[in-house]
Design goal:
This protein is α/β, with parallel strands linked by helices. It is built from 4 helices and 5 strands. It has a 5-stranded mixed beta sheet, sandwiched between helices. It is globular. 31% of the residues are buried.
């Protein structure tokens, strides 16, 4: 698992590449812990082919911590198999989950789209 970071305006985009699973969850947590206080964050999951319960737990934990710090977060580009898991756990109740980076940037720019309803 690796993360590629870039900035678009005032938004940090973190593209996650690799599986989010028991074997890589510590790396994922370290990356996400460093990004918890980023004011606007897009998690691009286009490079994730598989996610297990450990990966979901790390994602949800980081997203909750980000919300607690007032950060706005959106998740984008999950592959169909990953999107099914995100749907099952209701991740879209925590943050917007959208099809691509452009939609994620738009969600973070919209005053009512900063965070999903609690």
């Amino acid at each position: 698992m690796r993360a590629v970071l870039r900035n678009v305006g005032h938004v940090t985009i973190c593209q996650v590449v690799g599986n989010l699973e028991f074997l890589t969850v510590d790396e994922l947590r370290a990356v996400l812990d460093d990004l918890v206080a980023v004011p606007r964050l897009v998690l691009d999951l286009s490079g994730v082919a598989f996610v297990d319960s450990s990966g979901i737990g790390a994602l949800i934990g980081a997203l909750r911590r980000s919300r607690e710090t007032g950060s706005a977060v959106a998740v984008c580009s999950p592959r169909p198999s990953v999107n099914r898991v995100l749907d099952l756990v209701g991740l879209d109740r925590l943050v917007p989950v959208v099809a691509n980076v452009e939609q994620a940037l738009a969600a973070l720019a919209a005053p009512t789209g900063l965070r999903a309803a609690s």
